UniProtKB/TrEMBL annotation:
Protein name: 2TM domain-containing protein
Transmembrane segments: 12-32, 38-62
Record key words, sorted: Membrane, Transmembrane, Transmembrane helix
Keyword check for Membrane: yes
Length: 97
């Protein structure tokens, strides 16, 4: 059975804080005026990517995937035990012949 190493969350917290700091610093500098052209579009896309990064780190820090991971581990254990029991009965049948 595969052992899953527990990941620490401090790295994600640091990256979240850095992304928030960059966004807070950049938002006042981005010109969201209609006639801004390329600069406005670049600023909006950059802010959207920064929000995606922030959302991803929040998703990990809040532990949304932990419940899903537990369910997947339970399914994996059930399949492994089923496979082992099937393999054991097949081996016993081969030895008796």
């Amino acid at each position: 059975m595969k052992v899953v190493k527990k990941k620490s969350k401090w790295k994600h917290a640091v990256y979240l804080i850095l992304a928030l700091a960059m966004l807070v610093y950049a938002i006042p500098l981005i010109k969201f005026q209609p006639g801004g052209g390329f600069v406005s579009w670049f600023g909006m896309v950059w802010a959207a990517f920064a929000l995606l990064v922030i959302g991803a780190h929040l998703h990990f820090l809040l532990g949304v995937n932990e419940e899903k991971q537990r369910a997947l581990d339970a399914v994996r254990r059930a399949k492994l035990s089923e496979w082992q029991s099937t393999w054991g009965t097949t081996e016993r049948q081969n030895h008796s012949m």
